[in-house]
Amino acid sequence: MHAWPASEVPALPGKGRDLRIHDTATGGRVTLAPGPVARIYVCGITPYDATHMGHAATYNAFDLVQRVWLDTKRQVHYVQNVTDVDDPLLERAIRDGVDWVGLAERETALFREDMTALRMLPPQHYIGAVEAIPGIVPLVERLRDSGAAYELEGDVYFSVDADPHFGQVSNYTTELMRHLSAERGGDPDRPGKKNPLDPMLWMAAREGEPSWDGASLGAGRPGWHIECVAIALDHLGMGFDVQGGGSDLIFPHHEMGASHAQTLTGEFPMAKAYVHAGMVALDGEKMSKSRGNLVFVSKLRRDGVDPAAIRLALLSHRYRDDWEWTDQVLQDAVERLGRWRAAVSRPDGPSADALVEELREALSDDLDTPTALAAVDRWAALQAAEGGTDDSAPGLASRAVDALLGVAL
Questions:
Q1: Is it the case that residue 287 has pLDDT exceeding 70?
Q2: Which of 138, 220, 332, 408 is most deeply buried (CB count within 10 A of its CB)?
Q3: Which fold is adopted by the domain 297-405?
């Protein structure tokens, strides 16, 4: 599967700072100091409602992580999946009376278009669950053959008790885990499971549903968590720098994925930092497909909204915070974009050297975008009020905003 075109990232003078970021597993900030190549895995969409503002906010956060790393003169090895076969996708296809393959392809194409418009840097490897199945099957067989997984009426389940580190990503109570498992695709009440929290690794073929050859597992399709594990281990290996996604993936998805990988390899941890973006609400409730309260990037673009303004709206909130999308949030972003573009359109202005360093400091501090935006606001206001004599300043300010915030002025 192919990703989307990469926008050019301008080079800035000097060198950026190492990223200090909140790690869900430890509950505090960690300083990430990767080697020459930083490694990141971000969980992708299930393609049936792309691209809503919650998606955009999540991928914006991890785009910023990449930009901070690139500014430190590192390379970035970025991997993202597409869950192009799963129950919600199949259910939507049945509801709409369409072919599930066509639905997945259409929504994935729309997602690519939106990511391109928003200037999100693409992954080097963009892998669908279906194309990953040949690599998933051997991992499930290994877990089963080692005693870390078991069969139940043809399905194969992972035993969470096989991983001594289970629970150390979310640090949730068993009661909360069980509640979230039931809410987020698990089946804690299924009779015969060794532990109610045990997640499915391989679902035996169901009548009327797609299935693939699972070798000794029989015909079926993979569970959600093992999909990402197979892709991450294949392309990044263990101990990569950041596992990213929305905060709704902390449990069960990232918890279970970590346990799968750690049990398969005997190594700990799967990722050096587990980083999660907050949820976006509309009318007081979390934006979600089930509620139908979604704001779509493509709809805003069709209505003539500049993608740079959409990105500025996302940047106006700290990535870890839950926040609410409103017309005012977008209007504020449109007005800010206009002020910034006016400021960089002049032939000279006040020096932008300090601005570059302010942006670097803010972003290295747990991606503090509100502080970064305020720094650009101050420079633009000074430009409007007093101007300056530095003929390189507007260009430098424009390149810094593009390189570090992903906003083209």
A1: no
A2: 220
A3: Four Helix Bundle (Hemerythrin (Met), subunit A) (1.20.120)
